[in-house]
Amino acid sequence: MAVGIIQSEPLGFFNDQGAPAGLHHDILRELSRRSGVAMDIHIMPKARMLVELEVGNIDGAIMFAAPNSDAVAIDAGVTDVARLVALGRAGTPLRRYDDLVKARTVLFLGSTPFGAPFELDERLYKYRVTTYDQMVGMFVQGRANVIAGNMLVLLFQLKKQHQEQLLDPSVFLFGNVANHLFIGKKSPQRDRAAALQKTLQEMARDGAIEQILLKYQGKEWQHFKLHDER
């Protein structure tokens, strides 16, 4: 069974030894071990995954639920839950949504479901990027005071560049959004969806997913205060 995962540290990447690694990679490896379903994991750009799934080049993919994914794939269960946040540069605390408006320029990853009012708010200068690498690089270079996306990914990549000190501890939380394993409706593996969903639920209940998450998350997020006042 061929499964695509997003190419972004720490979700899916190749480590210093050239071996595949990452949160989604490790979740799928454990899912494969428990379910007995052999999985060939493909690390690829986010923009390619839905297309590859739709045309049948891969059987499954881990991604956020959306109308376009629901149209071509079957939900085979939740793999993990992402905190979608806005992180400000030191001195730019984000304690409420209006603080985003004051900051003005926000870098964000296209196709990430931030919801209202952010997606339609014309008061913000929203700069859409295609990868987290690009976003973090631009932030480090001082080209924006706010970055928005998956908190796990943003903190991991800033830590890797030894740039955590750039961040203000007050963080705005858009919400928690689940990643799902989807199996293409054209895939010959589609009948496995229910069984894989049951195994993922077991992994969530017995703490297996949480243990994998801790491997990549560390304790850095505990230094931040999350706010969600609209």
From TrEMBL:
Signal peptide: none annotated. InterPro entries: Solute-binding_3/MltF_N. SMART domains: PBPb. Residues 3-220 form the Solute-binding protein family 3/N-terminal domain. Coiled coil: none annotated. SUPFAM superfamilies: Periplasmic binding protein-like II. Keywords: Signal. This is Extracellular solute-binding protein, family 3. It comes from Rugamonas rubra. The lineage of its organism: Bacteria, Pseudomonadati, Pseudomonadota, Betaproteobacteria, Burkholderiales.
